[in-house]
Design goal:
The complex is a heterodimer.
Chain A lengths: L8 H14 L5 H15 L4 E7 L6 E6 L11 H9 L2 H4 L11 E2 L6 H6 L1 H6 L7 E10 L2 E9 L6 H41 L10 H11 L4 H8 L3 H15 L4 H15 L3
Antiparallel strand pairs in A: 1-2, 1-5, 3-4, 4-5
Helix pairs in contact in A: 1-2, 1-7, 2-7, 9-10
Chain B lengths: L11 H4 L5 H22 L2 E8 L2 E4 L1 H9 L9 H7 L8 E4 L3 E5 L15 H11 L4 H7 L4 H15 L4 H12 L3
Antiparallel strand pairs in B: 1-2, 1-4, 3-4
Helix pairs in contact in B: 5-7, 5-8, 6-7
Classes of the chains: A alpha+beta, B alpha+beta.
Chain lengths: 271, 179
Amino acid sequence: MKPFRNLKEAYVRRIGREMVELAKLNSLEEFEEQFIPLAARFVPGDCLCWNNWETDWSGMINVRTNENFGEWLNGRLPLFGEVVGRHPVVVNGSFPETANDVLRLSDFPGAGQFHRNPLYQHIYRHMDSRHQVAYTPCLLPDRRILLTWNRRGLDFTDEDMDLFRLPGKHLDLIAKGIEERRRLNMIWKTICGFIEPLVPELPLNSLGTKDLRLLAQLARGRSVTSIAGDAGLRRDTLAKRIGGIREALGLENQRQLLRALADLRAESGCE
Amino acid sequence: MSTNKPPSDLPPDHRSISSAAPVDRGRRFQERIVACAELLEASGWCVAIHLDGDRIWVGSNAIQSLRNASIFHAPDSWREFSRTFRQGLGSAITVDEPHIKIWRGGESESPAPSKGDLTLRETEVFNLLGLGKTSPEIAIILSCSVRTAEKHVGNIYRKLGVRNRASLILEAITGEDSP
């Protein structure tokens, strides 16, 4: 992968600073909504499209643009699909290459012809896409995220293409982070949803990593003293922490806590 | 304990452009999930989790149970593990989600100590302990003094060879179900 040699250091850092804010978002939908206006500020173009594609490139799931360029497309996706089928990048079989690098429409034979196609006239002019670059920076389990920038005036320069690669890189990293957190959240909810009906006294959602590790030790039947010895803590310190866990779980005394742990064990049928 | 592979680093291209914050957040969440899985494992359940990429976490009960079913050949990937793990486990599987599996192993790694020969009164006290009663509560239920109740508890400690209330109660509860 080429370094961002054409870009000024300060500019790269500025994009990074603003993009990292988006990494805190919790859903891809929010990210999509906020990424587009932000990226549109950094890259000179008219219409910026975020396209969600099937992972095997077989079709488009949906599209979102800045300044509502895409609104006209609502309900016209099949027609749009037909136009895309005649797109020079697609016709040349180069579509998957957009996953590796930014491709420029004008670099492909047949670009001029494509502009004269009536279907293009019908669809693409609504998005000011006389000149276009495309990049597919991100592959998720359920989609590919394809970015296209469209411009009605000047064609894109090599510097522009380098510039477009940068927000794409951020998009990839952030989208994967969001997707991963969503996946981990599902695992967490599965575990909690599994334990709760078995032992309602253990609402683990309120507990952190250390608390859970401590409970695991207790569930193995270890005494507080021996756990404290291994962890290099005073017994009282640990007893106090267990008290905190007990309160977080809404239990009245430590015996109820041990009882709950024993119930969890009994359900496993391991004896 | 687990078949963790070292985490794969981000491509250099990524490292140069972004803060590690979201990645750290993911790691911490993973640790919390694993801690929860350890609690289940400590309670005799078998757990396997898809951490990320091809990293998987398999608890010690789970490894034992898969060995018993002759289906554990140190899977290289979660995909491969998901494909093979159903063989031989059958009805023992209680959770079969895309990224987490929980099942009953049928065997505990630390067998509980035997109940020995408790007297009738001691057995009563033993059962009350299993219900989470304290010594003063037991004294009231059995209409005896607290000191007597504590004496019974002490004798039970000695006979079962346990050294604290925690293991005693675990014994009282888990022992109930055995024949």
